[in-house]
């Protein structure tokens, strides 16, 4: 249900706790005694997955994390907020460790001010996390807290549909001017969270509803930085469902999902949604920014909405989207299918080697593995985008070092730094690009804090027959790239290297 990649290349994965025991036992002595389902639960509802070794170990969450939210702070700690019942006010921390691999969830005594179930989180330039919305929570708050603990946000009440809501898990993006883009239902605004005021309302997106349970997905397209540090800011929203689709789905009638995608230039003097269509309709899909700056759309269904038993006809084919392709007929490309339906409560994230980790799916009110159309799915899959095909292996670069790093791989804002890399075979200099990707907290078809920056290249040097050095500008400010850990990729001729982690401070 929830996944977060950490800077030690391990992934925290977790699900709800109130279904009863899982089939993974916690270490001796670790049990929960406040469960809604059973009086004593000594099984794990969270794991730490090691990508390199394809191994995992159980973790212990203390309260229900069902439909919660998260963001990684500048120190690399996952700040995880809210959930259900006993977990709906909770703040939890997971800090990665490498020495003894004994790190586990810590639940703070401090609580959220109000319950947050189906909220969204975003890391801010000062390192705090803003927590926005949730079911019947028309407000936002911060961790660590402000002097004022909670801020009423009428926009969320205005975007709530009777019987359906369609404004949960709002789409959030930190903008380069320091304000916050907020999208819910079909509307979007720019929020000055420092002064608690809406400074701009953008046009309503045409056609269907887009946020939970209509559940489309969204990204902010890559920020391509200029020599001065500026960038065009464009948000994209795809898929969703018609108003009333959730009510119909609950009654067993599944309406076709939306095929439409909209893109909007946030800072345009007269912004408008520019619409185009995916190859198929999609609800509950994940949109993932790839190191190349392209987008992959995967998971979900062609009919229905999010919710128990509320969708049918899974979409097995991922779709590649090329945002800079001038020919609209060539922007979408249908890729090879999976054999596993990934529907309600599935997730997907980008890995440091350029693959996509996909896992989960449970459209039932309990775990159900047999005699159902879409069984509860416990597997993980690795999806290799087309750039990892064997015929492109000779183009794949290897990063050898990142120069000008401080201790703990720290890079300062506005600093120039250089990447040395090699190519496996001799070939003429091709097209190069350096990208920085913030790993997302992914749940319910939205990658919170997902962000990709294309860095400005100052100089490219050939050092030897196979060796090169590229110098780039770091992002200019914390508004453009919030502080914290990023994966840096060197992309050659459309093929990315394995990333290296840097810490931007």
Give a short synopsis of this structure.
By secondary structure, this protein is mostly beta strands.
Word description of this protein:
This protein is mainly beta and 505 residues long. Helices cover 2% and strands 37% of the residues. It has two helices and 42 strands. Strands 18, 32, 34, 37, 40, 41 and 42 form a seven-stranded mixed beta sheet that branches. A six-stranded antiparallel beta sheet has the order 4-3-2-1-35-36, with no helix packed on it. Strands 5-6-7-8 form a four-stranded antiparallel beta sheet, with no helix packed on it. Strand 5 and strand 6 (78-81) form a beta hairpin. It is globular, with a radius of gyration of 22 Å. The chain starts with a strand and ends with a strand. The mean pLDDT is 95. Residues 1-387 form the Glyoxal oxidase N-terminal domain. This is Glyoxal oxidase.
């Amino acid at each position: 249900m929830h996944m977060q990649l950490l800077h030690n290349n391990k992934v925290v994965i977790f699900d709800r706790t109130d279904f009863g025991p899982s089939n993974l036992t916690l270490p001796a002595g670790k049990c929960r005694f406040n469960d809604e389902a059973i009086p004593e639960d000594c099984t794990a509802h969270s794991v730490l997955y090691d990508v390199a070794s394809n191994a995992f170990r159980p973790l212990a969450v203390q309260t229900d994390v069902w439909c919660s939210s998260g963001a990684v702070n500048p120190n690399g700690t996952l700040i995880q907020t809210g959930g259900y019942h006993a977990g709906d006010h909770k703040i939890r921390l997971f800090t990665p460790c490498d020495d003894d691999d004994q790190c586990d969830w810590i639940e703070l005594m401090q609580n959220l001010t109000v319950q947050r179930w189906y909220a969204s989180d975003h890391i801010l330039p000062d390192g705090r996390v803003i927590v926005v919305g949730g079911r019947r929570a028309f407000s936002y708050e911060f961790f660590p807290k402000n002097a004022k603990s909670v801020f009423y946000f009428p926009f969320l009440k205005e975007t709530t549909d009777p019987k359906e809501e369609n404004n949960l898990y709002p789409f959030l993006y930190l903008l380069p001017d320091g304000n916050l883009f907020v999208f819910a239902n079909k509307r979007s605004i720019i929020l000055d969270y420092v002064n608690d005021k809406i400074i701009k309302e953008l046009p309503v997106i045409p056609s269907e509803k887009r946020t939970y349970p209509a559940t489309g997905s969204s990204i902010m397209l890559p920020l391509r930085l200029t020599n001065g540090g500026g960038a065009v800011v464009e948000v994209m929203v795809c898929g969703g469902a018609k108003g009333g689709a959730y009510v119909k789905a609950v009654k067993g009638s599944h309406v076709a999902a939306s095929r439409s995608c909209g893109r909007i230039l946030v800072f345009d003097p007269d912004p408008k949604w520019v619409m185009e269509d995916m190859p198929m309709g999609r609800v509950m899909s994940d949109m993932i920014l790839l190191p190349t700056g392209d987008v992959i759309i995967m998971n979900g269904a062609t009919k229905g909405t999010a919710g128990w038993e509320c969708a049918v006809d899974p979409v097995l084919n991922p779709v590649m989207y090329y945002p800079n392709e001038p020919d609209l007929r060539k922007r979408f490309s249908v890729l090879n299918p999976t054999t596993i339906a990934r529907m309600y409560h599935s997730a997907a994230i980008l890995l440091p080697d350029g693959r996509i980790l996909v896992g989960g799916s449970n459209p039932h009110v309990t775990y159900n593995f047999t005699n159902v159309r879409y069984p509860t799915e416990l597997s993980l899959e690795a999806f290799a985008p087309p750039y990892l095909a064997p015929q492109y292996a000779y183009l794949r670069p290897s990063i050898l070092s990142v120069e000008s790093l401080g201790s703990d791989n720290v890079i300062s804002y506005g600093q120039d730094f250089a990447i040395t890399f090699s190519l496996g075979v001799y070939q003429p200099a091709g097209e190069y690009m350096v990208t920085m990707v913030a790993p997302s907290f992914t749940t319910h078809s939205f990658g919170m804090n997902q962000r990709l920056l294309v860095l400005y290249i100052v100089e490219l040097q050939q050092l030897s027959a196979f060796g090169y050095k590229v110098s780039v500008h770091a992002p200019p400010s914390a508004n453009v790239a919030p502080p914290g850990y990023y994966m840096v990729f060197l992309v050659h001729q459309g093929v990315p290297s394995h990333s290296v982690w840097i810490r931007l401070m």
